[in-house]
Amino acid sequence: MMTSPRIHLFASTLAIVVLAVVAVLLAGSISAASERILTVFFISLIGVAGIGIYSGNSGILTFGHLSFMAIGAYAASILTLPAPMKAATLPNLPGWLAATQLGLVPATLVAVLLTAVFAAISGWAVKRLEGSAAVIATLGLLIIVHGVIIGWRDVTRGAQSFFGVPRETGVWTAAIGVVLALVIARLYRDSVSGLRLRAGREDPIAAGAVGIRVPRERLIAWVLSAAVMALAGALLAHFLGAFSAKKFYFVDTFLLLAMLIVGGMTTVTGAITGAVVITVVTELLRRLESGFSVGGLEIPPVLGTAQIGIGLIILFAMFRKADGLAGLKEWEERVFRASLPRPASARGPAIAEPEEEEGQIPLRAENLTMRFGGLTAVSHVSLEVGPGEIVGLIGPNGSGKTTCLNMLSGVLVPSEGTIRRGDMDLTGLSAPQFAEMGIARTFQNIRLFSDLTVYQNVLVAALSTRRGHRARPRAYSALERLGLLDKAGEDAGTLSYGDQRRVEIARALACQPSILFLDEPAAGMNREETEDLMSRLRGLASDMGIGILLVDHDLHLINKLCARIIVLNEGHLIAEGKPEEIRNNPAVIEAYLGRAGAVEAETGTEIETGR
Amino acid sequence: MKMLMSSAALAMALVAPAAAETLVIGVATAQTGALAPFDAPVMEGVRLAVDEINAAGGIGGNTKIELIEKDVRSDAAQTSIAAQELVDQNVSVLILPCDADPALAAIGIVASAEIPAISTCASSPTLPEIGGDYMFANFPGDNVQATVSASWAFDQGHRSAYIVYSPDTQYTTMPLYFEEVFTKLGGTMSGRDTYTIGQQDFSAIATRIAALDPQPDVVMTSAYEPDFPSFLKALRAAGVESQVIGSDGIDSPTTFSLGAAAEGLVFTTAGHATEESPLAAFNARYEARYGKPPETIFNAVGYDLIKVLEAAVLAAGSTDAKALRDAIANLEGVQGATSVITYKGTNGMPIREVALVRVSNGERELIAQLMPDAALIPAPRMQ
Q1: What is the rounded average pLDDT of the residues A287-309?
Q2: DSSP A406-420
Q3: Hey, which residues 150-169 in chain B have their CB within 8 Å of chain A?
């Protein structure tokens, strides 16, 4: 299932096919040499698209993907190498392999499958790593695979060149390959898995909270991108006819990454742009490399001009356009600004209501304790949130409110205590599992998927919870409830602070929760916006029966909304009760105002508002 | 009279294109990377020969030579790309890098374009065997060199040998040919070791050899820079006194600057400049052109290559690629700078003399320059 309007995918696919065909016809009309340059360009572009599928969507730079290209190249070549050539150059090959001789297409298919299997195994190790650990792991993969190729002489000829491969990759073959690779990359970007992975790239914690299992999506992208790299490798091997392990090492890794980074990692438009720019510049510089003369001035040959030139382009691109020349959007996303259609099934108010049975069961936490090393942030806190009630959770800064929410939503595993929902023990489950159990949340410091649109922010949550059932109507209904329909097409990161808060609530709502945690939802809102939010929150509780646990410093808001308030101080639950009871509770007053304030409060002053 | 003049003009017009004919040579060699120490000096010799021929009016006085050069960075894939680009530019003949592996990277292109190709100095006899009809070498084969050094060692009374080779390239497996000849002659092997190209540390191998009792009479390797100097120093530091035998890969200034460690070292190479020999004459012309004496035999090997092509153009009477291929395959007794060169009757691996050289007081001393006993030469095989 695709998450973007059909017009985008259609326009993109059409453009890719037309561009490829026009390029081939154009090159064919110039010379055989330009056809070859185009073939190399196409193969590089397949590689760039392959790396982009993983790096662009996951946000993790990879240095390891040339190893998949190598596996694809060697596997396909061993299969297509004529048997007499095999007998001469690889005498120690196992008999069945020595006797095999396939055509380019079946050999490429086998190579792609084999590489995908290898990627599934290596991806299992890489998928859980974050940030630079993941990058270093990919670098390790490159070095390990290179080492194995060098060492496995009987099959790969080691460091010697592998030659005699039938040169069957013509410009049309490469064109078919590149169309395939680019369309796969484009479709994956807007597939459910691609959208989830991009959400994970923007904010892994928020992604977890809306039910996305980021490592799983990383693994999918990793395997798919490896398969595309294998295609590039197989085609390259059958274009060159001869290659060695060096071809799939640092120099070419650098070249493909340069294309991807200069063009823009996150889009197919960027991959194409970068590949064109780098190819044109390299071809120009390569001609200058052997020396030239300008107006009688002889410029001596400088070897490595091309590499230096690419380095400078990267520096320039990073300096002026850090997201790459094409930016963060596909061209068709800029041209066709799609309006949000009202889903046919979205009529009627009941659409985002929680599932019947689950909605009747309260969430109970008992004895929750969280220790970070020697520091006890939360100590033996028990609380309950029932259906349809709005519970306030207040306390001075550092009293453990957010830590409590993190434990109740699976972001942190409590050191002690249990979280139960009826017969279900939720203690120790992951954030995505909490989301699946109907528990959704927002964050104190807004965690939106900034580079995704408002609609995508909400849709990805709907797609990743409740098995993605009726995701579009749920997303639409959530936006409608928060009054965000007119902002659906805008990038979440460009909205005002108040709007961003509302998007976060809509996103949580799209998970179809029965329990909702809101961490300072009104922070940064003006009085009007706060009033508006309050009525919307009341609606959620009364119309839909959602139980809300509300953390805020705005005691005015808390007092007006909550039937029951829980007060934390220094990790301990110090009071619980109706708003008026809390207002007059000496322990609460002391916690907020200190001892002097407590004395004052006894003489009649009430805590009215924290603002 | 008028008619005579016009027919003369016509005749001249017919001759003119032939007079303006050019032999376009595509040069795809390694000017950077691991093979540059060989291909760079080869190209100096090539340019010297081309300039001499062109200054004299061209081959046979009418065919100028034009070089189109590309650097392949000692890389197989780059060689394939460069060879294809040169074929696109309609060259008549291709010059390929010094090692069999990158040279073989171009076989598909060479064979389908039907353009003859010569490797600058690859010595693996499997090169023309696998490369087919259009692939030629320009150096004494590994099997021929090994036969010369093994026969010499046996004649000197050496009876036990230890070989150190690397399966990384065809060339570095030359010691396996040495073993074949040496044992056929009646010698015995004390052992064999493998290394990786670029390994740097050879102390483990040196220690293993030093621990042998009795010590091997001969240690043979075809390692070259930077491996060979490290190996030799490690060997001498471990106290091994055995005769060390190397191959043409160490025919470089480095070898002669190693001091005591290299003293007495013997290696095979493509030629030696005795007085009044063609090589001595070449060396003088080289010095006049470049302002320094040649430091390696590979300068002269480059000169040989152009001499072979010159002879082929003369024999073929044209610069047509297919005609050139047939002409090269039938060349006999071409006088090069290093040796007399014959392709006739071979599969593309030329018959040429091997020089056996000893390092003596840091200078080169010729032991012998010869063609070995053909019956002893091992058959080429992929190692």
Answers
A1: 69
A2: HHHTTSS--SEEEEE
A3: 167-169
